[in-house]
Amino acid sequence: xxxxxxxxxxxxxxxxxxxxxxxxxxxxxxxxxxxxxxxxxxxxxxxxxxxxxxxxxxxxxxxxxxxxxxxxxxxxxxxxxxxxxxxxxxxxxxxxxxxxxxxxxxxxxxxxxxxxxxxxxxxxxxxxxxxxxxxxxxxxxxxxxxxxxxxxxxxxxxxxxxxxxxxxxxxxxxxxxxxxxxxxxxxxxxxxxxxxxxxxxxxxxxxxxxx
Length: 211
Fold this sequence. Notes:
Layout: E1 3-7, E2 10-14, H1 39-46, H2 55-64, H3 75-78, H4 92-102, E3 106-110, E4 116-121, H5 122-130, E5 156-159, H6 165-175, E6 179-184, E7 187-193, H7 194-203
Antiparallel strand pairs: 1-2, 1-5, 3-4, 6-7
């Protein structure tokens, strides 16, 4: 399981610690009980009989009898492949046509040598054409004949084929990523969108969402 930050002339491995936020769970502190349990009550609670097993033992047996979940899903099992792509010289108009006819929202931009150069979404193009910046400032309207290389996001975060889908789902939430290209040796192998993760959850309803 590996994440990369990839551009036309770069392919840098990204440590998980730099991608995911730290756990929000704080260390627990010891507390003083409000009411002490006397010896007689403690003895009574600790007693077990064959007919009346201790509540803790009952809970343990219940958990032990739960069905085993399947092994974690990997990126290659849910990714869409082959991928609809564009070259960096393609126009915004061509990209919008693909978004409309293929009913997709993200297009990887791939060079003539097959290297992933970036990724562009329908929102990126519409915002660029309307002259709206990421800070929602109005600028001059742009031409639909401009190349997507001026609108794409690069470098782009990618993952390997053996990446656990649970980490991809977490990445979508924490980094507000809409789609994740899947690469092998720098070559685009597939792409995973939010809808692919949701479909995986529906198909594998017994999927353990986190280890």
